[in-house]
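Standup, Tuesday
Yesterday: got the pipeline producing C-alpha cells again.
Today: sanity-check two examples.
Blockers: none.

Example 1:
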Amino acid sequence: MEMNCCLPNNTSSNEHPLTREHGLPHLEHPSEKYSLNWKINQAGLGWLSLGNYFGYSTVLIKVRKIQKPQNGFPMLQPAFHPNIIGLVEAFYDEGVVYLTYNYSGLVVSLAQVVSTPTVKVNELEIATICWDVLRGLEYLHKTLDMGHGNIDSSNIVLFADGTIKIANIGDSMLEDTQTSFIDDRESLASLLLGLDQPTNHVSRVTGEQTHKVTLSTYALHFIENLGPASYSYLFEVGPKEYYLDKS
C-alpha cells in the first residue's frame, strides 16, 4: 500500500455551478475535507482517506478526469444499499471529479477470486453472488432509475464477512448512459455462467474431450430468465429460497 501525504491539489474559480437537484458534486477539492491518504486498489485505484474533522470517517476516493459538461452531472447523487459500495459524496475541481465511497475494510474483487487457481466456486456460492448482485441491481434500477452498464467480475467485490457488493456506481452516474436494465441482468447471467467450472470428459471411443456443465437444471433455468423476468418473479423463485429449502 503506497502512502502519500495528500491528494494533488488544484484551485478553481468554477465559472458556473455544476450541481443539480442532488447537490453534487461539491465545487471544491476534497482536501478541504479529507486528508492522510494511502493509494490502494479496490475494484480500481483510489485514495484511502480520513476526514479532517471531529468524528472523522474513513472513505475511499477515486479520481476521474472528465470534460466539464454544460448541464452538470444530473445522475450524480449519494447512494446507499447493503449490496452497493455506497457513494457518500463527490467533488469537482479543475476538470477532475473525486468520487467518495464508503470504506469498510479491504475487499477482493470477484475477478481476483476466480483468477486464483486453487479457488473453485460451487453452485451455492454462485447462487449467493446472484442473489446479492440482483438486490443491488434492483436498487439501481428501481430506486435510482439508472443502469450500471459494467456488471462484470471486476466490479463485484467480496468482503471478509461474506457480503457481496457492486462497485463503481459513481462511474455509471458520470457516464449517464442509457443502459438497458435488461442488459445489466443479462451481463449478470453471463458472469454467473462464466463462474461455472465444467468438468472435462474424454470419450473412450473417439478420444474427444467434451465439457460438461456442473450447474443444476434449476440454476441454468434461473440464469436464463435473469434478463426477461421481472424482479418480483426472480425474488419469488430466487436462488436463496431454493437453496435454503435444500439445506
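Example 2:
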Amino acid sequence: MFIADPSWTIRGKFIELLREIPNIQIVGEASIWGEVVAQLPELSYEVGIIDQDILKSPATQSIQHLKRIQPQARVIILSNVFTPEHEQVFKQAGADDVLDKSLDFSLLQALLTRKKYL
C-alpha cells in the first residue's frame, strides 16, 4: 500500500491504522506530488491512497498518470470536499474510489475492508 497525504499527522494515523490489519504492508509514503512521481515507478503496490490536495492540477491528469504508472493498482482519493460531482470527476479519470477524509479513521478502515481493498 502507498499513502500520500500532505499532513504527517494524517499519514501517521493511516499507517498506524493499517498496520493493525494482517498482511498489509506499507511500501511507501509521500507528502507532495513530486515524491509520489519519484517513488511509484520503483514500487509494487496494490492500493494507493492519495489525498486530493497532493494531486497536481488538473487532478484528473494526475489520476490518469497514477494509473499509467501502475495500471493494476487501485487508486483511492481522499477528499475534504466530498460531493457527488467530485466523486464522479475523480472516478471518470480512473480513481477506483473517493472517500470522505473527514470520516473517523475507523470508519475509513471499515470502508476499505468492505470494498475489499485490503
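Quick observation on example 2: The mean pLDDT is 87. The chain has one domain: 2-103.
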